[in-house]
Specification:
The chain is mainly α. It contains eight helices and no strands. Helix content is 75%, strand content 0%.
Length: 193
């Protein structure tokens, strides 16, 4: 019998995939998530010599270094959480597009099987943060097409603002999002008439 695609099953599946990915990535890294490289970003920020185009991650790294003495571990953990959340949000996007529980989970399992080959995603911190925000913006846009909720619009605006701070290239995507949302709203009005 087919598993029904409802809110409870999708939420349970989301949580399971998140923890499976988190554990799998910890195993791939040998439980060593103390990634280096953040010190250079923090030093450049304090010296103010280099213009940093990835401002959001720089601010997160500097703030983390002020709060925690072992900030490399915290930033590594943040990377693992964000990269696992990205795949879990991708699962939610699949459920918005396709209502087949088995097929969507099969796609996610293929992504997980491919993961050791691209586990570098957790090392390149800026890309993990941006990919998370980008995937979240796509999911929120799809949610916005279902219902016109002010809370979803606010989350989308915050996500897109953070994406622009994470990577300035996001500004070029904003017209695409607006065009999609406006055309969808126009289609809904035409159908309602």
């Amino acid at each position: 019998s087919e598993i029904k695609v409802n809110r409870i099953n999708v939420t349970i599946n989301f949580i399971l995939i998140f923890f499976i990915l988190l554990i799998f990535k910890l195993i791939v890294y040998g439980f060593d998530i103390n990634f280096s490289g953040a010190q250079k970003i923090i030093d450049n920020y304090h010296e103010g010599v280099i213009f940093d185009v990835y401002k959001l991650y720089t601010y997160i790294a500097v703030l983390t270094s002020y709060i925690f003495s072992n900030y490399s571990f915290i930033l590594g953990l943040l990377n693992l959480i964000l990269s696992s959340l990205t795949i879990s949000i991708f699962l939610l996007i699949l459920f918005k597009i396709n209502k087949s529980f088995v097929f969507n989970n099969f796609i996610i399992l293929l992504v997980i099987a491919y993961m050791p080959l691209h586990a570098i995603d957790s090392l390149i911190r800026v890309d993990v943060l941006y990919l998370f925000l980008f995937t979240l913006s796509i999911y929120l846009t799809l949610r916005l097409t279902d219902n016109n909720n002010t809370k979803i619009i606010l989350f989308l605006v915050v996500t897109m603002t953070l994406s622009c701070i994470a990577r300035e290239q996001t500004i070029y995507l904003l017209p695409l999002y607006l065009t999609y949302i406006i055309s969808l709203k126009m289609n809904n009005k035409i159908i309602a008439v």
